[in-house]
Design goal:
single chain; 195 residues; Leucine-rich repeat, LRR (right-handed beta-alpha superhelix); 2 domains; two-stranded parallel sheet
């Protein structure tokens, strides 16, 4: 593990680096192309505008908190199991191809559409404080925690999510139709429905 600040140019020499963490730096771009063995990457509280992860195909955990990125392409990061990218400026995210995801955290962005294909391993989805209006929850057969507070959902059909234990759907303009789906979730242990 190497935590670095001013020496970004020398970063390229650490070709076998597996874990890298940056926090409270001033860089707006970063070149990670030579770090092909990188498995865990954390960047937080940095004015990063963009990031190219094309060559980081071994990534299993990616955490990008509180940056200025507005796009994130994970097309080549097929081994990702944890994608945690809260407090950025993302308006769209496609994770269809990330079928190994177990955790997806996208809270405090501006996402109005989240493309989700079949995600049989996904256990936790945190998408609080976005602009989401719909979510295909039937594509999440093993979801256990669903946090969707402060979005724009009117209807949420969760009837097929029988492994769901924690649900937060407060501060959404839900219609009465959602109630019939909620009544089928007798397995819930924690349920939050407040503004």
């Amino acid at each position: 593990t190497l935590t670095i600040s001013p020496c970004l140019d020398e970063l390229q020499q650490f070709k076998n680096l597996r874990t890298l963490a940056f926090s409270k730096n001033l860089f707006t771009t970063i070149d990670l192309s030579s770090l092909k063995a990188l498995e865990h990457l954390t960047i937080s509280d940095t004015p990063l505008n963009s990031i190219d992860l094309t060559y980081n195909t071994e990534l299993t955990r990616l955490n990008i908190f509180n940056t200025h990125i507005s796009q994130l392409d994970t097309t080549y990061n097929l081994k990702l199991q944890q994608l945690n990218i809260p407090k950025n400026q993302l308006s769209y995210l496609n994770v269809d191809h990330l079928t190994k995801l177990r955790y997806l955290g996208i809270s405090y962005n501006e996402i109005n559409y989240l493309s989700l294909a079949e995600h049989p391993l996904l256990k936790i989805l945190e998408a609080n404080d976005n602009n989401l209006k719909q979510l295909d929850t039937f594509r999440l057969p093993n979801i256990e925690e669903l946090k969707l507070h402060n979005n724009n959902f009117q209807i949420l059909n969760l009837s097929l999510n029988q492994k769901l234990f924690i649900l937060n759907i407060g501060n959404n303009p839900l219609t009465p139709n959602t109630q019939q789906y909620l009544e089928q979730l007798s397995q819930l242990r924690r349920f939050y429905l407040f503004d």
